Amino acid sequence: DIQMTQSPSSLSASVGDRVTITCRASQGIYNYLAWYQHKPGKVPKLLIYAASTLQSGVPSRFSGSGSGTDFALTIDGLQPEDVATYYCQRYNNAPAWTFGQGTKVEIK
Amino acid sequence: QVYLVQSGAEVKKPGASVNVSCKASGYSFTGYYLHWVRQAPGQGLEWMGWLNPNSGDTNLAQNFQGRVTVTRDTSINAAYMELSRLTSDDTAVYYCARSGSLVVGYYHHDAFDVWGQGTMVTVSS
Fold first, then answer.
1. What is the mean pLDDT of residues B99-120?
2. Chain B (48-107) residues lying within 8 Å, Cβ to Cβ, of chain A
3. What is the tens place of the pLDDT at every residue in A22-48?
4. CB contact set of B15 (below 8 Å; sequence gap of 6+)
5. Mean of the pLDDT values across residues A76-105?
6. Residue A53: pLDDT above 70?
7. Are the Cβ atoms of A43 and B44 closer than 8 angstroms?
8. Which of B46, B104, B115 sits opposite A43 (nearest CB)?
């Protein structure tokens, strides 16, 4: 089965910083990758799909890149409301969908 | 507006079963796959399986095969996830989520664009 590995597992950054989270697939998945934001007590929210397509309503400071096995989520100008855990997810080659282990983002 | 509304919190004893419902509104229930995802306390998101509401076909992650049954009732636009032989490790928030609405160019992208509010299942003796 295809495994998804995120790094780092957690990070602390200042408001306004540029933050990058990476996600690596154990096999090529083309661009069938999504990123979600999950705040405690809330429902996961889709940020990006097709590796780089911003979901409607998501602030433009979020961006995604990559294809094949290596992907990244960038927050350009971290805001206090961005404190959350971020997950990548692959969804190619059904029947399985797989999440990364998550990256917890905090404000310094 | 598209909604997935789940049933309320449950407390169950070890060995029992739990049934979580997910009721769809605002879109064609049979037109999109529904998935089940869970998050145990302090853990990440774990995909459990999908349901094709049109055909009733399902596919479950290996970890849940033999213990999870996913069904639907198209007359009321609802899906159900039954988890049997509960243990304390099954204590988690369970979510349903929709896929199939996202298209880029000629390609469908089956990320989860709509989520239910989550159902807390607590397994305790």
1. 92
2. 50, 59, 61-62, 95, 97, 99, 102, 104, 107
3. 999 999 999 999 999 999 999 999 999
4. B85, B86
5. 92
6. yes
7. no
8. B115
